[in-house]
Design brief:
166 residues, alpha+beta, three-stranded antiparallel beta sheet, two-stranded antiparallel sheet
Length: 166
């Protein structure tokens, strides 16, 4: 967080980092202040929070940016060993790229899925207070597989994905 503040604003403090992240999220991406709370930059801290809708807005923003391919390359691929190996041998394998998050009573999966018809869908599933992280992961897998299995005709004016691979 301090590095972000230093690079973006010349202020390498926690406060500078929080300001830089909030400026990006609120002013550039257009997320409402009530959808995100940045305090210390830790994904493990209860002092930081974000709504699934805010994550989707960030993903949509990134998909429209020149940095999309580089960003997409940072997301683990479903079904790939040493990446997001779960959902192996499912419709999501090779068609879903997402970041996971797991800690006690919390599970998350957010990213991009390519449907059977080639449509790209960004999604975010955040679960708090879960009795079993393992069951939550199974539910996330079912959602990812269902999204990747969707097939519907696309309008002819729909732009093609940024690359042939993803």
């Amino acid at each position: 967080l301090k590095t972000v503040g230093r690079v973006a604003l010349g202020d390498g403090s926690f406060a500078g980092g929080v300001e830089a992240v909030q400026e990006f999220l609120l002013e550039v991406v257009g997320i409402s202040a009530s959808s995100v709370s940045v305090r210390d930059g830790s994904g493990l801290s209860p002092r930081n929070s974000v709504s699934p809708g805010a994550i989707v807005k960030v993903l949509v923003h990134m998909a429209r940016s020149p940095e999309w391919e580089a960003f997409l390359g940072t997301l683990p691929e479903a079904g790939a060993r040493r990446e997001l190996g779960r959902m192996y041998r499912s419709a999501a394998a090779g068609n879903l790229w997402a970041k996971t998050g797991t800690m006690e009573e919390v599970s998350a999966l957010s990213g991009l899925v390519r449907t059977r018809s080639g449509e790209r869908i960004v999604f975010s599933v955040l679960s708090n207070g879960v009795a079993s992280e393992r069951r939550a992961k199974r539910a996330e897998d079912r959602i990812g597989i269902a999204l990747s299995s969707l097939g519907r005709p696309l309008p002819s004016s729909t732009p093609s994905p940024p690359s042939a691979d993803r």
